[in-house]
Amino acid sequence: MNLEYICEQMVRILHGNITCISESGAIEACYGDMAAQCNPLFTDPEFLSAVHERERKDYPDLFYEKDTILYAVVSLENAKIVAGPVSTEKHIKDSEHYLMQHHHISDETGFRLSFCELKVFVSGILMLYHMITGKELTINDLWQKNGIRETDIIEVKGQISSVIFEHQEQELPHNPYDQEVRELDSIRHGDVEMLNRSLAETYRGEVGQLAKNQVRQAKNIAICVIALASRAAISGGMIPEEAFSMVDGYIMKIEDMNNAVKIDSMMRQAEYEFAECVAEIHKNQQKNELVEWTKNYIYQNLHSDIVIGEIGQKIGVNTSYLSDLFHKVEGTTIQQYIRKEKIRLAENMLRYSDYEVKEIANYLSFCSQSYFGNIFRQQTGMTPARYRKKYGKWKEQK
Predict the structure, then answer these.
(1) Mean pLDDT value of segment 333-352
(2) HSE (CB half, 13 Å, CA atoms) of 27?
(3) 202-238: pLDDT as tens digits
(4) How far apart are CA 97 and CA 39, in angstroms?
(5) Are 34 and 136 in contact (CB under 8 A)?
(6) How far is CA 357 from the centre of its chain?
(7) The predicted structure's pLDDT at residue 64
(8) Residue 296: band (very low, low, confident or very high) from pLDDT cuts 50, 70, 90
(9) Which of 140-144, 185-189, 355-359 has the lowest average pLDDT?
């Protein structure tokens, strides 16, 4: 095994240094840009000693500093391989400041902490571990081995007991389950009036406490409600990818808000939009599983040049049969449906983003901006530029 070669290549994947520590605790080698000048293992002897003394484990040992600065240790027979530091947050100035203050890293080094998505870093560590040891672990294995301690479980059980006791002592139950069922059923059936009635119900009890801070409490409740609403909408016939995208959009917006009342209002708006989407689906179609798979594939690939033959191959049916079935159920061809959905997404981007028309045409894989403009005008009755001028919300938001 050529450990040097493996480490040199893995640095590019992990976007961070890889350091080899001997059995005695000395640094034997380090790989990565400006590794020695900017690596806490070099600048902070106490940190190097703490990493060296960490318990040897038969799996990659993950540990954090300040919740966002991540390291991984792979223990070998006579050495340890340490990957990191990397930041798992895109906004890493605070992490850089922390490392420089606590690990004696000088401004003169031009220190810049690398960003690496958590899932990319973990996948890279699993690959490094396999290449060095020959052992295979799944991501789930890694989380479980690095995750919850017995003391954490004891604390959670104690917290649950405390919550139950407090609610019983105050004779104040949670919000009734049957009300929640009616709320989700209204979304599942696309029944906006039923949703109105379920939200207007009065009952004894209150939603659970999910945070001590009022705004964080509102955000956590909203995340739970929107996630449940999306599943109800999918059950009611909504395309999963579209529902998941709505969840992402609403939750990202809510995370940027700092007013509990407005957060609650945005949460309810999401519920109503899910119910309205399901109502539209129920109004227009009879469901067919192959057709739904086709629509979900199209939605996931709107940014690509979708080839109808590839859809048939993907879901395992004859292309001609699928085309005929789709036309029979939807009343339109697959190609027409693809164009309609691309233009629908283009309308959304023109309304709510600052992407230029040319960028939108490229993103949606139209062969030219003029062709995109022609198709857009056929479907909406106006040019993309005129549509943005009339309906665009981006400048209003800014």
Answers:
(1) 88
(2) 20
(3) 655 566 667 778 888 889 989 999 999 999 999 888 8
(4) 14
(5) no
(6) 27
(7) 83
(8) confident
(9) 140-144
Asked whether residue 388 carries a pLDDT value surpassing 70, the answer given is: yes
Is the pLDDT score of 350 beyond 80?
Answer: yes
Instruction: Place 197 in a pLDDT band, splitting at 50, 70 and 90.
Output: confident
377 pLDDT higher than 90: yes
DSSP state of 115: B
Spatial CB neighbours of 180, under 8 Å, sequence gap ≥ 6: none
Return the amino acid letter for 138.
T
Determine the number of helices (DSSP H) and then strands (DSSP E) in the chain: 21, 5
Please state, in angstroms and rounded to a whole number, the distance separating the CA atoms of residues 10 and 36: 17
Distance CA 302, CA 98 (A): 42
Contacts of 395 (CB under 8 A, 6+ apart): none
Alpha carbon distance 319, 173 (integer Å):
56
Predicted local distance difference test score (pLDDT) of residue 173: 47
Instruction: Give dist(CA 248, CA 244) in Å, integer.
Output: 6
CB 59 within 8 A of CB 141: yes
- Residue 42 near residue 27, CB atoms below 8 Å: yes
Q: Which residues pair with 64 in a beta bridge?
A: 70
The string of DSSP letters for 171-228 reads T-PBSPHHHHHHHHHHHHTT-HHHHHHHHH---S-BPPP--SSHHHHHHHHHHHHHHH
List the one residue out of 12, 44, 42, 10 whose CA is nearest residue 29: 42
Structure tokens at 288: 């067919």
Distance of CA 43 to the CA centre of its chain: 35
How large a percentage of the chain has pLDDT more than 90?
A: 16
With a CB cutoff of 8 Å and minimum separation 6, the contacts of 100 are: 106, 107, 111
Residue 81, both tokens: 């391989």
* Per-residue burial over 328-345, b = 16 or more CB atoms within 10 Å of its CB, e = otherwise: ebbeeebeebbbebbbeb
Stated pTM of the model: 0.48
Q: In what order do the strands lie in the sheet with 27-31?
A: 27-31, 18-22, 79-87, 69-75, 61-65
Q: Which amino acid is at 257?
A: M
**Cβ distance 243 to 230 under 8 Å?**
yes
